[in-house]
Amino acid sequence: MSTSRVRKEINEALLAFVDRQRPGLLAISPDLSPLVTALDELLSGGKRLRPLFCYWGWRGAGGGADPGIATAAASLELLQASALIHDDVMDSSDTRRGRPSVHRRFEAMHRENDWPGAAGRFGEGTAILLGDLCLAWSGEMFESSGLDADRLGAARTVYELMRTEVMCGQYLDMLEGTRGPGSVETALRVVEYKSAKYTIERPLHLGAALAGATPEVPVALSGYGLPLGIAFQLRDDVLGVFGDPAETGKPAGDDLREGKRTVLVALTAERADRVQAAALERRLGDPRLDRAGVDALRQIIEETGGLAACEAMIERYTAEAAAALESAPIAPDARAALADLAVAATARLS
Amino acid sequence: MSTSRVRKEINEALLAFVDRQRPGLLAISPDLSPLVTALDELLSGGKRLRPLFCYWGWRGAGGGADPGIATAAASLELLQASALIHDDVMDSSDTRRGRPSVHRRFEAMHRENDWPGAAGRFGEGTAILLGDLCLAWSGEMFESSGLDADRLGAARTVYELMRTEVMCGQYLDMLEGTRGPGSVETALRVVEYKSAKYTIERPLHLGAALAGATPEVPVALSGYGLPLGIAFQLRDDVLGVFGDPAETGKPAGDDLREGKRTVLVALTAERADRVQAAALERRLGDPRLDRAGVDALRQIIEETGGLAACEAMIERYTAEAAAALESAPIAPDARAALADLAVAATARLS
User: Fold this and answer.
1) Fold of the B148-350 domain
2) Topology adopted by domain B1-44+67-146
3) What is the pTM of this model?
4) How many angstroms separate the CA of residue A227 from the nearest CA in chain B?
5) Where are the beta strands (DSSP E) in A31-186?
C-alpha cells in the first residue's frame, strides 16, 4: 500500500471517529457544536506524519491488512491536535496551519457576540478544554481500534511513555527559554524528548508493538527514528525562521518573537562575535519584533554560519537514519516507504 | 471495610503510582523534579470523593477484596487533579486547597529565579502541561489496576464517557458565565454534566462496571448518584459564597468575583426586586470586589430567600438520593457506606 493511500485511510478513520463523537456532544447541548467545528477545521490540515510512522512501523514488523491499524495510528493525530491547541495558548500564537489558532477563534466568537467578560480568557479557557478533550479522545480512539488485546496492551505502554515524554519535553523546552543562550547540547536534549521521540521513534515503536514485533525491530527502528526525528526538528527550526508563511502556516519570524532557544539559535550563538551576540540577545524574544528586526536576525543566523551548521547537522542526521534503515530487519515495502518519509520529513519546502 | 480504611488504600495507591513515575521523569531530566513536587502537594489534599464513590459502586455490585480496585478508583483523583489545575488557570485562581495554585506556584518560581521573560506565562504554561500529564496519567493508572481485562473494557467506556461529559460541562459552565442572569434550569443542566455525573454517578458506574454488575445496578446507582451529585454541587455553591476560607481552601467570595452563574445565583436572581437585581448584576463578576462588596452580595442572597431556596433544594435532592439508595439492589455494607458519603458530600462544614 502506498503512503498516499495510507494517508487516505488515516483521514477516513479520523473523520469517522469525530463523526461518532458528534451526536453525543450535541445530545449534551447544541452549544457544543462550535467545539466540533473547530476540531474539524484543525484536523483538516497537517501532514499525518505520526500516524504514517506508526503505520509503517506496523508494516515493518510484519503487520498485515487490518483496518484497525489506521484507527490506532490516526489516534496520534488527536494527541497532536491536543498538543498544538495547548501549545498555541502557551505561546500566545495567533495562527496555526494558516488559520486562527483555537483560542483566537473562540476569543473572536466571544467578541462577535458582544458577550460580557474577558474575550481573551474565554478563548484560552475553551482552548484548554478542547485540548483536554483531544487528549482524552486520542486514548479513546487508540483503544477503539479493535486490534488484538494482548498487542494493544504492549502498545499501550509505548503510548503512555510517549505522552509523558512529550509533555516533559515541552516543559524542558519552556524552561530552556528562561535560561538565556544555551548550548547546542542542551537544546538537543529538548529536541530528543519534545520532538524526535514523540514524532518519529515512538510512533514507529507503537506500530511495531501492535504488530507483535520481536525485540530487535524497535531497536532497529530507533536507529532510524531518533536521528531522523532530530533532523526533522532542525528542519522545523530553519523553516520557523526562513520559511514561507504560506507553507508553514505561521507568520514569518514567530519563533524569533517567541524567543525559542532552538538548536539553530544555539549554533548561531556559538559562532557569533561580540556584536552579533549582543544583537541576537537583544532581539530574540522581543514580541514587537518587526520585519526589519526579523531580517536582521536572519542575517546574523546566516553570516555567523549558524544556518550552514544547522543544514550540515540535518544532512548528517538524515544520512545516519538512512544508513540504519538499510540494515533494519523490516519488510522491504516498509523500508522503501520509510526512506520516502525521511525525505518528506526533512525537506526544504519548495 | 470502612470508608476511612478505603481512603487509606486509595492514598497508598496514589502515592505508589506517583512514586513509580518519579524515576522515569528524573531520568529524562532532574529539572522535572518541581513538577512531581507540585503534584505531590496537590494530591496531599482533597477528600477522595470520586475514588470513594467508585469503590462503593464496586462493592455495591458485589466486588470483593481485590487490591486492584483501589488503584482503578484512585486514578480518578489524578483526573480530578488535572481538572483542578486547568480550572485554576482558566479562572486565574490564586489558591487551591489552601495553597498557591499550580500556575501561581511556577510563576513564583520564575520570579524568585529572576528568569527573563514573563513569569505569568511560564506559570500558566507549566500548569497546562502538568494538567495534561495528570490527565494522561489518570488513564495510565486506571489501566494499571490489574483487574479483569473484560471488565476493564466495559469500565473503560464509562471512563471515556465521564471525561467527555466533564470537559463539555466545563465549557457549558464557562459559556453560562457569558450570558448574564440565567435560569435555574440552565444552571442545573451545567451542574448535571460538570458535577453530578462526574463526581458521583459515573464513579459509581465505573466501580459497578469493574465488578461486572448486572444492568439494573447502574440504573439504581443513578437514582442515588444524580440527585446527590446535584445536592453536592449546590452545597459547594453555598460554601463558595458563605464558607470559611480555612475549610474551603479558597479566599472568601472568590466565586462571586469570578461571576459564577451558579444555581444559588439563579435562585437569588429569580427572587430579587429591581434594586437587588441591579446590585447583583453590578457586583457579580467584579474582580475587584472587596470585603464590603462580598458582604453586600451575601446579604442580597440571604434577603431574597435565594439561600433558603438553595438549602431546600439540597435537602430535597439529598432525600431523593437517600430514598433511591434504600431500594437499590446492592450489598448492605455498600448501602450503609453510601448513606454516610451522602451526608459527607452535602454537609455544611462545621
Assistant:
1) Farnesyl Diphosphate Synthase (1.10.600)
2) Farnesyl Diphosphate Synthase (1.10.600)
3) 0.96
4) 18
5) 95-96, 99-100
